[in-house]
Amino acid sequence: MDEHQRQLIEGALSGDADACGALYDANARWVKVYLLRSGFTQADADDLAQETFIRVFRSLATFDAGRGEFRPWLAAIARNVARKRWSARKRPENFDPELAEEMLAGPDDPHGSAEVREEIDAVRQCVQSLPDDLRRVVSLRYVDGLTTRGIAAEVRLAEATVRLRIEDARRRIEQCLRGKGVVE
Question: What is the pTM of this model?
Answer without folding.
Answer: 0.51
